[in-house]
Amino acid sequence: MDYVSALALGLALAMDAMAVSVTCGMGNGRKTQALQTAFLFGIFQMIMPVLGWSIGKVGSGIIAEFDHIIAFGILLFLGIKMLSDAKKQDISGMTLSSTKDLVMAAVAVSIDALASGIVLPVSVKAFTVMQMMEAVILIGFVTFVLSLAGYAAGMKISRIKPQYAGMTGGAVLILIGIKTLVAG
Fold first, then answer.
1. pLDDT of residue 91
2. What is the mean pLDDT of residues 40-47?
């Protein structure tokens, strides 16, 4: 497995979660809420790539010859989407008052992880189940840490701009897509 690409993908995927965590910290400010937010975001960032990978396995024989081109297209799309979404983010502070709200936010910030799971084996060279598990655990851990840090930053600094995190994540996804296309 390519651990550098897996870490970079984890960082890119975690940027949305971190940005939401910053805004949650700005609007809420409870330490128990910070842990719950980071935990749920990390878990969903682990679950969604596995679901995407499962979906991708069904059609893997059909797309094997073109998988690097498809990976590039998906990562490019997700990167552009993250860049676009980052420009629209409201930084006034988001209050998620219930576990249901947090779960909905966790699903929302991990949709890109679902799509990336389809191309995860190609983009990080995770071709066995064990390598796949290593990759998703790394992605989940990175998301947990960045979400916790983002929440703490939001609690302390109300003027931080989470758009920059989303823009960075989008740029990293595009770069991973280009690397996957070139490596073919």
1. 45
2. 96
